[in-house]
Amino acid sequence: MCALRVPGFLCSFAAGKPIMFKETLFHIGDRDFTVGHILWAVITVVIAVLLLRLIKAAIHSRAKGDHEQRSRLHSAYLLVKYAVWVATIIIVLQVLGMDITFLVAGSAALLVGLGIGIQQTFNDIISGVFILMEGTIMVGDVLEVEGLVGRVTEINLRTSTIYSRDGMNVIVPNHRFINENVVNWSHNALETRFNLKVGVAYGSDAELVKRILMNCAVDQPDVVTNDPAHAVQVRFIDFGDSALIFELLFWSRNIFAVEQTKSDIRFRILGRFREAGIGIPFPQRDVHIIAPKV
User: Fold this and answer.
1) DSSP 3-state assignment of 171?
2) Per-residue pLDDT tens for 19-59?
């Protein structure tokens, strides 16, 4: 059986003999890999996995019920996770008897050759590290990036995942959060202010329009109405070409689905304007035709 190139430790195990940790399993070039090498490598990986699970469980236990703290601890966990796996890989390579210095030198030479081609990838990775360390963007935040509005569901080292209002998971490279203007609607605040612009016909009662707009916003459940610091406001902002322009300002905690909230308020405004006989004009132009002189 052993003559058929079956590893010696398997023969010893089948025969009930103790396994020798220095027994060679296989060769790669002039390097021998023993049972002890593989065993210690497996133990190192298992310890890393168990350590990360303990850290994750501790984070969930500590941040239970606190969304903001959970997001910050999750970012810290990702940094610890990457650090633990890098350390684990280095330890495993050393346990296997491989020369780390040689690998680092070889990797440096390879990266110099590929530097131009993967420059953007490095940019994304460095941006991911900054995002995780600064904590300005966290899991659960609602962001607006170049017109895309969505909730952050995952932050990785190179890319992040945003769940859009259309129900799609959008993969966004991390450098976009660093190099572009990003609106974080939920950063350091539970309430966010939104606005609606409405035009009414000239001759309408401005005070009546103000009361209707106020009542339409207050009657919407998603609008904050019990906080004087975030009160509903109506502004008369301009005399338009065809209408008097008003702006309704309101605060809401339902920032992810705020477009539905705006739609509900518009439905109420339209219905109450019709009840009150207030018209919403469309653009009009007066055309004067001058007959040519004969």
Assistant:
1) strand
2) 455 666 666 656 666 777 778 888 888 888 898 888 888 87
Q: What is the DSSP letter of 17?
A: P
Q: Which CATH architecture has domain 136-184?
A: Roll (2.30)
pLDDT class of 210 with cuts at 50, 70, 90: very high
* Domain range summary for the chain, segments of one domain joined by +: 7-114, 136-184, 192-276
Residue type, 43: I
Q: What is the CATH number of domain 192-276?
A: 3.30.70.100
Longest dimension (CA), the chain: 124
The residue whose two tokens read 């070889």 is 106
Residue 231 pairs with which residues in a beta bridge? none
Residue bearing tokens 């300005």: 136
**Which among 82, 96, 88, 76 has a CA at the least distance from the CA of 34?**
96
Candidate from 73-87, 105-119, 155-169, 261-275 with smallest mean pLDDT? 105-119
Torsion region of 97: left, alpha or beta (phi above 0 gives left; psi -120 to 50 gives alpha): left
CA distances to 27, 59, 72, 189, 253 from 65, rounded to whole Å, are 53, 12, 13, 17, 17
